[in-house]
Amino acid sequence: MANIPVTRKLWANLVKQVARRTQSPAEAEDLLHWAYLRLEDRNVSEEIADPAAFLIKAAKNIQIDNYRRNRRFSEGISIDLADETPLQDEAIASRVRLERLKEGLDQLSPVAREVLLLRRLHGLKYHEIGERLGISRSTVERTLARATTFLMTWTNGW
Questions:
Q1: Cα–Cα distance measured from residue 71 to residue 65, given in angstroms and rounded to the nearest whole number
Q2: How many domains does the chain have?
Q3: In terms of residue numbers, what domain contains 14?
Q4: How confident is the model at residue 22 (pLDDT cuts 50, 70, 90)?
Q5: What is the dihedral of CA 109, 112, 117, 119, to 10 degrees?
Q6: Which of 59, 76, 93 finishes a domain?
Q7: Tell me, what's the pLDDT at 133?
Q8: Which of 2, 16, 19, 106 lies in disulfide reach of 25, CB 3.0 to 4.6 Å?
Q9: Residue in 151, 140, 101, 97 with CA at minimum distance from that of residue 118
Q10: Within a domain: 83
Q11: 118 in the same domain as 70
């Protein structure tokens, strides 16, 4: 600093003050360094009454400028880094569960399997399934309940 000697004690005191005012102890010394460079770049004809106060205020302003610049930059970029693909072990576990479900479907009677698939995969209503298979609505309900209960038991723990 042009008109006051910079000692370690003064610098340490300035770093503490900048850290307290910016609430960023990790950046305090860097901010103070940039503020010092601003002080040195100023026109020598301009006299600064309190260089220490200038440094602290300049460091705070630099932090604000950096925050605004980073915010503008991050608002301009919209990157979706989330990868929705399942992890390898999740994919393997899903395949194992699917194989177990297929084995369970093979254990069902042809009518029960058809009722379950028409309801769960194709979304048909009970009366539509009954008309298609030539059975009553109550038979569709009972068959679906039994098939669902069986598959829940069959796949339990998988």
A1: 10
A2: 2
A3: 8-76
A4: confident
A5: 180
A6: 76
A7: 94
A8: 19
A9: 140
A10: no
A11: no
Residue 1's pLDDT band, with cuts at 50, 70 and 90, is very low
Q: Are residues 22 and 68 in the same domain?
A: yes
Q: Which two tokens stand for residue 132?
A: 């298609």
Q: In the block, which residue shows the tokens 């769960």?
A: 120
Does position 33 have pLDDT exceeding 90, yes or no?
A: no
CATH code of residue 144: 1.10.10.10
Distance CA 91, CA 76 (A): 35
Contact between residue 97 and residue 155 where contact means Cβ atoms under 8 Å apart: yes
Distance between the two ends of the chain, CA-based, in angstroms?
Answer: 72
Q: Burial, 62: exposed, middle or buried (Cβ in 10 Å; 0-12, 13-18, 19+)?
A: buried
- Are 14 and 72 in a shared domain? yes
Whether 118 contacts 140, CB under 8 Å: no
pTM over 0.70: no
- Same domain assignment for residues 13 and 70: yes
CA dihedral over 39, 42, 43, 46, signed as positive or negative: negative
